[in-house]
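Q: A reviewer asked whether we had any structural model of the full assembly, not just the individual parts. We don't, so I'm hoping you can provide one. Inputs are below.
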Amino acid sequence: MHIPDGMLPGEICAAGYAGSAVLTWICIKKARSSSEDPAGIVSRASVMAAAFFVVSWIHIPLPPVSVHPILAGLMGILLGWLSFPAILVGLFFQAAMFGHGGFTTLGVNALSMGGAALLAWALYRMLRGKSGERAILISGFAAGFAGVSFAVIAVGTVLILTIPAYINTGAEVSAVLAMAAAHLPLALAEGIFTALVARFLLRVKPDMLM
Amino acid sequence: MRAFENWDTSLKIPSLFLLMMSMALIRDQHLIPLLPCIAAVLFIASGIPLSLLLTRLRAPVVFLLFVSVFLVLFSEGETLARIGPFDLKSLGAILALNTWVRVLSVISVGIVMIQTTPLSGLSGKLKRMLIPHILIDIGIMTGRYIMVIGEDYSKMKNARKLRGYAPGRSLTRRLGVIVPTAATLLIKGFQQSERVFHAMRMRGYGSNFTGDDRSRALERPSTLSILLSFATIAVSLLLIVLEITVETA
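A: Here is a predicted structure for the entire assembly that you could use as a starting point for your response.
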């Protein structure tokens, strides 16, 4: 899911950084407008980013393999605007500590994963409506499913569009569709996982849900 | 190794990052062989063990394999070989090889950049590089709390094992364990963030420039740092100029 270093042309990487910088600035500004104190933003984004980083070590069994959750939807639900900067920082740590993703592609990866988290959050807010368990299960599933789907489509589109022009268009479209289909079980698993975690939080600590 | 560790961080990170970006820019197959040469020189000079590079390559290899298969099967041009219903294209094979070389070279430079950067005083130096303070603070605290929350997770796993709990193969039974574990970690993280928030406010977080930052801001980079940065930037610019020249020719 993370695009490694050297895969994308330099100009795309630079554009990714520019886009990420603008979106980070917007997200921090929006988060600040809801919380006057910068300490609140820093502590919540960083500790929750660390928690998400650790939760991504937990593997969900998806026979015959097991996958780790991407958590874009859950981050959106719990952090709202702060999900983008938190994902940006989390991706940096993943690149530095495990070699997942890369430093030159950090901006593009952040745009795809962080953008997916923001879109999943918007979808969750749209569907949430009432505060019952049924509503949280539906909106949680939608956010988890959409978080993975948006990220896969974004990464697939960037990859296919930057691959040299010697590939025919039909093959490019097929590859994006194949990539999306391959991630469908993961999106479903993440949807179920997000819905159940959101329901657990609603029962135990409802003020965590945005 | 010493020279790379003593290379001033506020010069090293932008120089090596520029080099990585310029290497990523290279698409011409005549220039591709330059990339592993540059990466090898940096990697050997840094003294980083090769085993570390091999460990870091596990994650991107899957991605590279996917892209390589796609390029070899779906490129246009002459057929190199035929396996069953699939035609392997020669142009695709060249593109795939170029991709592997470029990706491995850029990753090697990235490893040199991150492994030779000391953590002490990193925040002050990153602030000098015009990276927003708030992002650096989030990064530093995230790094710290990954360890703390990671320890919590290990304790929870050990406690589960000591109680003799074996989730088995059933998906629903496993989810019954995974969901409360993940949610509990998130709740712990949330509660910890509230405590950290109060501690930060008590310590006057938000006031500009600490004494430590000011003293570091006055530090001048060593001659060695300037020379290494100059050489790296020169190589980066040379690569960009060569790529543009070859492309327009």
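A: Points you may want to mention in the reply: The longest helix of chain B spans residues 171-202. Chain B has a mean pLDDT of 82.
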